[in-house]
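Weekly structure sync, notes
Attendees: PL, DS, HV (note-taker this week)

Item 1: ABC transporter substrate-binding protein
DS walked through the input record. Source organism listed as Falsiroseomonas algicola. Sequence as pasted into the shared doc:
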Amino acid sequence: MRRRWLGAVAAAAISLTAGLAQAQSTLRVVLINDLASLDPVQSTAAFVRNHGFMVYDQLFALDSQGVARPQMVDTHVASADGLSHRFTLRDGLAFHDGQPVRAADAVASIRRWAQRDIVGRALAAATASMEVVDDKTFTITLSRPFALVTEALARPTASALFVMPERIAQTPATTAITDATGSGPFIFQASQWRVGDRAIYTRNPNYRPRAEAADGLAGGKVVNLDRVEWIAMPDPATAAAALQSGEIDFIEQPSPDIVPTLERNRNIRTMALNPVGFMVWLRINHTQPPFNNPAARQALLHLINQQEVLQAVGIRASEQVPYCPAFFFCGTPLESSAGAQGLREANVERARALLREAGYNGQRIVFMNAADSPINNAATLVMAQAFQRAGLNMDVPSMDWATVTQRRNRREPVDQGGWNFFVTVANVLDGQNPLTNLYLASPCEGGLTGWPCDQQLEDLRRSWWEENDAAKRQEILHRVHARAYEVLPYINAGQFRTLAAHRANIEGLRPTTVPVFWGVTKR
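Item 1 (cont.): predicted structure, written out as tokens:
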């Protein structure tokens, strides 16, 4: 009996140890939004991008200095004139279904992505041909200069460029994919996905990381976790309590007012996942009056006080940029103030004069409010109040972010379900230069929601990415910036940093801007 008892104790101990080991290899995370859809081409939402970095890989990836490094690509050879590019994939790449990654998969993925993304469209417009040479090699031949080919293939945000199987990439870009088969470091467990609850990812045992150390989004994606659970917890107080109790391990963006409490907990660490920071972007519908008139858009510059917006959001002074006139983020090599107006102090009388010039006559202005996002909600409410002071008849309907992302595609007039404004929060990868800034593009009908239209701005943008000389590109950038202040595709309502928070036993998190979980361990 004693031997049986000892055997039972030993078996229980082994079971408990195995259970603890399993628990320690599971990372539970709360990101800014819940996973609501799967197609990283059709949607520009950050939650789809975050999902994409889990399950897919990229041809090139941006390192911590913003330099495009080979990722799935082994070798890249460019001609002396920069018009011909030959890419060879590295050995051992395979999709989650066991099929090898081929050049045909890469080409099909680029073609689908190029139908939707502003960077992809720019590259496609400059491309004469893109051909599969063999299973591992493909070429891109340009018809005109395009100085940023590898940077384009490293597109990490908006409609990010991820490689998927050719059979999936052949889906029309207007049709959402539902198969998340990729070749990335994690495998999506579709049968366990519950919108509004959680998404589950398991380690890809067949993934072959690059030999280099991880650097930014580039380098070796070494997975030390068996499982990542992306938990939906829209209430920031609930998420903070769960982090403190150990129910979850990581919060991408805790509410700023909760951060001091988390910092006092010896079991919690905070970090700047995005050192450059974020911007509050006010997106304006250019098709609906009165903001189809530039004067009305200019009026908003004299009503928005960036510091007031950031204070309303609850950003601590240490994490604020009190005034930032730059479209391409303050604190970066492309920071500019060319053409800047307003945003530092309100001038209500100037705003009213511009609204009169635009013919505003008191019609209802719809400002969609993503109330489930604390930052979006606070920024929306404080700006709506400022607009009201100038006489705008504000209607601020509350909805969740998923609903905003659907309704913002409607082109109907306001009285038929249309809209005038919404707030989105962008990181430096969204807005770092004239090529990649998804909301700066102003191509009229082919553009993103809001549909700004200005050929002069488009010509300036194109001249920037076609110019190989860095000094000349910088001169063009200031002209782009000044024109953007005249057209106002969107308005920078404030730049700030937020801190991510994690349990002290989580190691290996790095300032990658986008939340990624390779290289992360749980002690």
